Amino acid sequence: MANLQERKSFSKPRISIQASGGTPEAKGIEKRKLSQKRRTLPLQLSLGGHLSPWPTYTSGQTVLHNRKPCSDDSRNRANSCQQQSMSISKPKYLEQLENYLRKELLLLDLSTDSAQELRLQPYREIFEFFIEDFKTYKPLLSSIKNAYEVMLAHQKERIRSLEPLKAKIVTMNEDCSERVLAMRAEERYEISVLKKEKMNLLKLIDKKNEEKISLQSEVAKLRRSLAEEYLRYLTERDARKILIGDLNELRYQQEDMSLAQTPGVWGEDPVKLTLALKMTRQDLTRTQMELNTMKANSGDVVPRRDLEMQEKTNMELQEQLESLKADYEEVQKEHELLLQLHMSTLKERDQFYNELQEIQRTSTPRPDWTKCESIIAGGPERWLVLAEGKNSDQLVDVLLEEIGMGLLREKDFFPGLGFGDAIPPFLRFDGPVKNKKPSKKEVVNLLKDAWKERIAEEQKEPFPDFFFNFLERRFGVNDAMAWAYTIFENIKLFRSSEIMNQFYAVLMGKNLESVYINQKKTLSHLLKELLSVDTQNEGSITMEQFSTILKTTFPLKKEEQIQELMEAVGWGPDSSNTDMLNYRSLFNEDEEGQSEPFVQRLWEQYESDKEAYLEELKQELDLDPLEDVTLLKMRGTLMNIDPTMDKQTLSAYLSQAYQIPAIDVPLEDEEKQGIISIKVETALDRLRMADTKRVGPREPDPAS
């Protein structure tokens, strides 16, 4: 009966808790019922009673004295201690709480959705009992319980807020699965259609091959029959000639026989012959008289052939005279123009002379660059290397780079630029950034590796994002920002280095990366052409071969530009075309990434050709730089100055100028082309950023 009463007293609060819900009133009811349940607990114990400190009260009894491990006394004492410890039971209050927890857990219905919350309720009650019984620790235990309750409530709210997101994810997962299945079905259908088409084409190819074989056999048969007919006709022709010769011989023999048999041919009448002779002599006399008369009358007459020849000569001389008159008039005009030009040149000379005098009077003297030898690291030898072939402006840049490099070495940290929109993405950081202090060679090698990885990647991201991701992959997430600031400061400083200058221009959006990539492709193509000429793989070719390859590889370059490239490789006026050239050394780079003069000259010509092309485009547009130019007018102007441009290149130029995708450029819709417009200056700046160059000559060859 006591057990039954205890079971009822323990189960009653559980039912009331399930029905109460989560409202504040229900929580109050739950608290009151907990207090009632506490009163109904059998064999109540409180801190005022004697709570057993189990199992600590036996610790003093289990201490063993120092004994020999093999002695009988120690063995007996150990056995007695073990029996004593096994006979010790748990405190009554602990057993009651464990029995209550076990019964409550058995009575729970764990099949509902809130099974875990119900399972937690008995543990709450046990904890409440501890809080009420241990008065000394009640504030601490209450704060612990409240902290856990707050955290559980927060987690429940968070789970409740994430339930719609979970349902949405499930729905999206189902939609994506359906779309994937549909795409796979469509791909399977397309694959089956393509397979059928492939089989049909294979059958058609087999049929055509059979027809080809039959036709070839028929042609061979016809050739044999034609040869036989030709031989037969040759034989018939020869036989016919022989037969005709025999017939002619027979006819001649027959005529001779008929003449010999005809009487009177050889026996002509002498009277008739005398009369005929007399008449013939009279005709001869008359003809002689007429001939003499004609000679007398035609003594002073010029032959017609001579007359025609003289007339022809006269016409040629007349034409030469007219052409000489025209040349004389043209030369006279040119002489007048030259006189005017000479006068204007004299005026300009006087003006420039006066300006020179004024500049010499007011300007400072030319700087003595030898003073920099003692300041630059490396002494006079390094300064001579740096200053070789450079003008004053370039020497100022070199001096600034050397000074900046020293200041850059002294910096241990860079100030962070913040997170503003004007800050590049790879420099957005707040706080000091460590200066890694790499050498110029290390920076150049790092930029080369970045270019190699950029060219090799398939899915292209924006170049600044790629640059920062590359640094993360190379140096890790923690050091990527420090390297980004370090490399940025170095490439911003060393403008005389080609690879640093080009990388800085692409990184800051001043140039597209296609400019650098196409330049490398051009050099690779030129090297391949040179290797194709070097059949012996000796590494050297003649100057004549080098000049020919330059003209074929760069057909749009003028003769003066080809001459500049020849001079850049060491060809001079005294050199002969048979001199040998080590062409592989033209593409070498030093440890700081500096190219040979030949590659530098190629890049300078590329920049000048681009500027000339854009200037020609600007002149052809004939608009103010701040005026708007429509896509239709830009398209027509590009076709006028570059008639051989293909549609793909034209679409790419228009896409770059108007910042629209190349596939959306309306080349065929003139109405849309007339709507899209942009300022001339903006369009030219955007084309200057890209790999813009002439595709063909201004006036194409009529034969092509």
Structural class per helix/strand content?
mainly alpha
Instruction: Work out the strand percent.
Output: under 5%
Helix content: 55-70%
Number of strand segments: 6
- Strands of the widest sheet, in order across it, are 1-2
Q: What count of helical segments does DSSP give?
A: 22
Average residue-wise pLDDT: 78
Rg over CA atoms, rounded to whole Å, is 56 Å
Instruction: Compute the separation of the termini in Å.
Output: 117 Å
Major sheet: 2 strands, antiparallel
Order of helices and strands: HHHHHHHHHHEEHHHHHEHHEHEHHHEH
Estimate the global geometry from the Cα principal axes: elongated
List unreliable stretches of 5+ residues: 1-76
Explain what the structure shows.
- This is Translin-associated factor X-interacting protein 1.
- The chain has helices at residues 2-20, 24-40, 72-87, 92-107, 115-133, 138-261, 270-297, 304-362, 379-387, 392-410, 440-456, 463-475, 477-493, 498-507, 513-533, 543-553, 559-568, 597-621, 631-641, 647-658, 670-675, 680-689; strands at 413-415, 432-434, 541-542, 580-581, 628-630, 677-679.
- The strands form three sheets. It has a two-stranded antiparallel ribbon with strand order 1-2.
- Among the domains are: 2-56 and 68-136, no CATH class; 329-363; 411-510, no CATH class; 514-598; 623-689, no CATH class.
- The chain is built from 22 helices and six strands.
Question: Helix and strand layout, with pairings?
Answer:
Layout lengths: L1 H19 L3 H17 L31 H16 L4 H16 L7 H19 L4 H124 L8 H28 L6 H59 L16 H9 L4 H19 L2 E3 L16 E3 L5 H17 L6 H13 L1 H17 L4 H10 L5 H21 L7 E2 H11 L5 H10 L11 E2 L15 H25 L6 E3 H11 L5 H12 L11 H6 L1 E3 H10 L15
Antiparallel strand pairs: 1-2, 3-4, 5-6
Helix pairs in contact: 1-2, 1-4, 4-5, 5-6, 12-13, 13-14, 15-16, 17-18, 18-19, 18-22, 20-22
